[in-house]
Amino acid sequence: MEFRDLKKQYQVLKPQMDAAIGQVLQNCNFISGNPVAELEKELAAYVGVKHCVTCGNGTDALSLVMMAWEIGEGDAVFVPAFTFFASGEVVAFEGGTPVFVDVEERTFNLDPDKLEEAICKVEQEGKLRPRAVIAVDLFGQTADYRRIEEICKKHNLLLLEDGAQGFGGTIDGRRACSFGDAGATSFFPAKPLGCYGDGGAVFTNDDNLAELLRSLRVHGKSPSSKYDNIRIGINSRLDTIQAAVLQVKFAAFQQHELEDVNRAASLYTQYLGDVLKTPVVPEGFTSSWAQYTLILESSEQCDQLQRALKEQGIPTMIYYPKPMHLQAAFADLGYQKGDFPVAERLCAQVLSLPMHPYLEEEDIRFVCNAIRSALER
Predict the structure, then answer these.
(1) Whole-number Å distance between alpha carbons of 206 and 44
(2) Rounded CA separation 235/247 (Å)
(3) What are phi and psi of 293, to 5 degrees?
(4) CA-to-CA distance for 151 and 17, rounded, in angstroms?
(5) Which of 49, 186, 279, 366 has the most crowded CB, counting CB atoms within 10 A?
(6) Quick one: pLDDT at residue 226?
């Protein structure tokens, strides 16, 4: 059994995928070929924004926005304590200070109440300038932007949606990566929409921001020539083969994959909801299910269940074993164990199950029966 079955996906999409890649090979336009611009238009229309600016990976997508917003020394950027390292890394890399915030246990996402508390604390201390919030759509579930957007407007903060895992999710019909001042996503192969390497994108309705991002991703070039460099930038382009791959996958994503992965999640919840804490999708929200993550009663139970499933040939993962504020790279910020109890508890008690659009119901039953047997023991 595969944790995320990219092999099965390729077999299903093989005719279209081989043709798309073959066309790129035939044209030999490997950088900035037509599929890149076509994909950007398709993605922007789907998300419901004016601009999609693709780039080399999801981390660069976040970094490009930090660069464009000129985040630097003395700037506070609020980041959830339970997320992948890149969400806070990009702030520190630009010279800013990530200020970590605890999360909601059942959605795994930034707790709006804790966010406002953290903002007020920084404002009162006066040591840092509150500049922005990076809210993360963890495991496919969008953060609570109904409240987070209001908080950011109240405190005059920029809002970046880290939709690396959230692409395809919605709130009241509004799609992930359309919230805040900008949204970013990753096309890492295991993401809800993934390519065959690295890739990323930024989404925005801000014309000036989009123009600046297009410059920054190609060495700070001017609109007229890549050899006329008007600012310092980076080299971060989505290559043509990856764009072609994504066009094929995006069609499947819209046609059936998003529906199929939600069907798989519903079956997991149906079979396990009476014995374990299963993921919660609030009313008005939908998830793209980058992961299906259980909350166990203790780290010991988590370890025992993971071992039991491994014996049955069932792969599982722990996302994430260490919270952001306890990462050694952020030791100089002075956080201590106990500062963010929900994030710390989740790191000790979460376990993600095999999850993808090509899971058969018999596979899900097999996993769930193995879990129930292990819990009984």
Answers:
(1) 13
(2) 23
(3) -115, 125
(4) 43
(5) 186
(6) 85
